[in-house]
Amino acid sequence: MKFVQSFKMAFKSILAKKGRAVLTMVSIFIGVAAVIIMVSLQQAQTDYWMEYMRNMGTNRIQVYASMWGGKDFTKQLYNFCLGMTDLVEGVTPSQTLWGAQARYGAKGMNANVYFGSEQYGVCTNSTVTDGRDLAYMDVEKMNRVCVVGSAVKDKLFDYQDPVGARITINNQSFTVVGVYKQKFDGSEYSEDNIILVPYSQNRLLARDTRMEQFVVKAKDAAATDKAIDRLKIYLMAMYRDRPYAGYDVYSLNQSIEEGNQQERQNMLMFGGIAAISLLVGGIGIMNIMLVTVTERTREIGVRKAIGAERRSIIAQFLIESSLVSALGGALGVVLGILGTLVWIKISQNKIFYPSPFIMLLAFGVSVALGVVFGLYPAAKASRLQPVDALRNE
User: Fold this and answer.
1) Are 127 and 141 in contact (CB under 8 A)?
2) Among 217, 248, 278, where does a domain finish?
3) Is the Cβ–Cβ distance between 259 and 49 less than 8 Å?
4) What pairing do the DSSP bridges indicate for beta strands 194-198 and 107-116?
5) Does residue 14 fall inside a structural domain?
6) Quick one: 129 and 24 in the same domain?
7) Residue 75: inside a domain
8) Given 189, 217, 245, which residue is the final one in a domain?
9) Are strands 172-180 and 166-169 parallel, antiparallel or unpaired?
10) Are 199 and 211 in contact (CB under 8 A)?
11) Residue 185 domain-assigned?
């Protein structure tokens, strides 16, 4: 029997038992949709994390060094980082005053104040769009100047040009000299909600002179590892025999690698869950095809009696099982796309489409299930003897 004839017969058989066919498809399209949605959610989360890391800056080293009582090593540590010119491009303190009250005229907001140097922009991958960045003399002369993030600009100034305006930070007056380009979503809860001031103003705003947090910008990935090793050795020696001290050194490159590893683990877990769903669907296909073989025993006997070959019988039932699973897979792809769009729009407020590769893979697996789980019923049908089949009521 030709392929087209087999396909027509399979399609007519499905239409003859619409309810049963739909129930069989349900298990398939739920499994396919689950695969697409879960993988897409993981990809969207990974994309968000990778974008966040890129915006923060690669080859970036975070240094935390705390000393409770005794000598303040802030200047020595800062100078040591500056001295690694063969490995680093920039160094800046990155002490933070969370939730400071910033005001301009009648408008106010809570902003995060960062105490940094003139190299803050280089170290954090921040670009000035209006005005200028901090300068070396701003730090040395303790100038009351600041650079604001896009969220602060939008909240306090609307459409006004903030450069040259005077704002108050915890009731202390500062002049805005620049605006950083938006790197995240521009909300008050993102890293765009920052005000950068010279770290020499730490005493004024935070009532402290110590810098316990630094950002070091390495030249490349290899330099990052070498700089981390040097810093750890230096801090270990500097803080030796000092029980009231602690330090930590790590790079965002490590965070990116850890994120990639976590993604791979999640993908394996989601893949296992989805595989179970599809396996259940495949068993459903096998069950319904066995019922179909039983119902069409006499038809099979007639066809074999007039000379139909085993391969023709096998082809017909494989095409029927594959068609059921393919229709279920197609519906699953549609549901997966819609589910992904709705879920990510609600959770992340953005439009995200599933990967075409994942959709094709999920659809291909659904069709393969029809073939694999339809093989046994098809083989059983092809082995029926014409006399026994025709005798069946």
Assistant:
1) no
2) 217
3) yes
4) parallel
5) yes
6) no
7) no
8) 217
9) antiparallel
10) yes
11) yes
Q: Residue 218: name the closest of 125, 94, 149, 132 by CA.
A: 125
Q: What is the rounded distance in angstroms from the CA atom of residue 393 to the CA atom of residue 258?
A: 65
Question: Do 352 and 274 fall into the same domain?
Answer: yes
CA distance 191 to 22: 50
Tell me the pLDDT of the chain (393 aa) as tens digits.
455 666 676 667 766 667 677 777 787 888 888 888 888 887 887 777 777 766 676 788 989 887 665 566 778 888 898 889 899 998 999 889 999 999 999 999 999 999 999 999 999 889 999 999 999 999 999 999 999 999 999 999 988 999 999 999 999 999 999 999 998 877 888 889 999 999 999 989 988 767 888 999 998 888 988 999 999 998 888 777 666 667 888 887 766 667 667 777 777 776 677 677 777 777 777 877 777 776 666 666 666 666 667 677 777 777 778 888 888 889 989 999 999 999 888 877 788 888 888 888 888 888 888 788 877 777 777 676 665 555 555
SS3 of residue 146 by DSSP? strand
Q: Residue 6 in contact with residue 315, Cβ under 8 Å?
A: yes
C-beta of residue 64 within 8 angstroms of C-beta of residue 247: yes
Label the pairing between strands 128-131 and 88-93.
unpaired
One-letter amino acid of 325: S
Are 276 and 385 contained in the same domain?
yes
Indicate if 140 and 211 belong to the same structural domain.
Answer: yes
230 part of a folded domain: no
Question: How many domains does the structure of the chain reveal?
Answer: 2
Find all residues with CB under 8 Å of 298, minimum gap 6, and list them. 389, 390, 392
Pairwise CA distance, residues 30 & 14, whole Å: 19
| CB-CB contact of 169 with 100 (8 Å) | yes
Is the distance from CB of 224 to CB of 61 less than 8 angstroms? yes
Going by C-alpha positions, the residue among 201, 195, 81 that lies closest to residue 149 is 195
| Structural domain boundaries enclosing 195 | 86-217
Closest CA to 162 of 147, 173, 182: 147
Distances (CA, A) of 386 to 73, 309, 315: 94, 12, 18
- Residues 170 and 293 grouped into a single domain: no
Which residue is associated with the tokens 């106010």? 108
Side chain identity, residue 118: E
The CA distance from 61 to 221, in Å, is 11
* Bridge partners (DSSP) listed for residue 65: 247
